[in-house]
Amino acid sequence: MGASDLYKDVLMAHYRKPYNYGDLSDVDVVRRGSNPRCGDEVEIGVRFDGERLAKVAFKGRCCAICIASASMMTEVLTGRQRDDARRLCLEMTAWFSGADDGAVAVPPEPLPALSAVRPYPARRRCVLLAWEALDGALASR
Predict the structure, then answer these.
(1) Which among 139, 138, 137 has a CA at the least distance from the CA of 31?
(2) How much is the pTM?
(3) Total structural domains in the chain?
(4) Which of 27, 92, 94, 129 could form a disulfide with 33 if both were Cys (CB 3.0 to 4.6 A apart)?
(5) pLDDT tens profile 80-136
(6) How far is CA 82 from the centre of its chain?
(7) Residue 68 maps to which CATH number?
(8) b vs e for 5-21, b when ≥16 Cβ sit within 10 Å of the residue's Cβ?
């Protein structure tokens, strides 16, 4: 099994059983994102404990890639400090868009699995939608 197959398996696992999907009733801030091109609509909710992200959750009607990306994002960022989370949002945008010229280190697991989508420019927005909504939530408070 090659890395590409492994990455696809990781994406499908997060799509089928997403982490932190659903209840946003106990969060401090919610931001929405939409992608009219493929119909993705996502809501990202964050509950803070000081500057720490005590909870990062999402819900929405999204394609498999968007759900997998949001699931991975919530897994990686729950428990992190706000500044660290904002930095990772910016790095993901640069890394995924290819605008980093190799300057951004490979993101933490399981995020490298998203590289399976990088060759498909039309799907990049599906990956980054949740990250953009989260960055807006972090900036708003």
Answers:
(1) 137
(2) 0.91
(3) 1
(4) 129
(5) 999 999 999 988 888 877 665 555 566 778 888 988 888 888 888 999 999 999 999
(6) 15
(7) 3.90.1010.10
(8) eebeebbeebbeebbbe
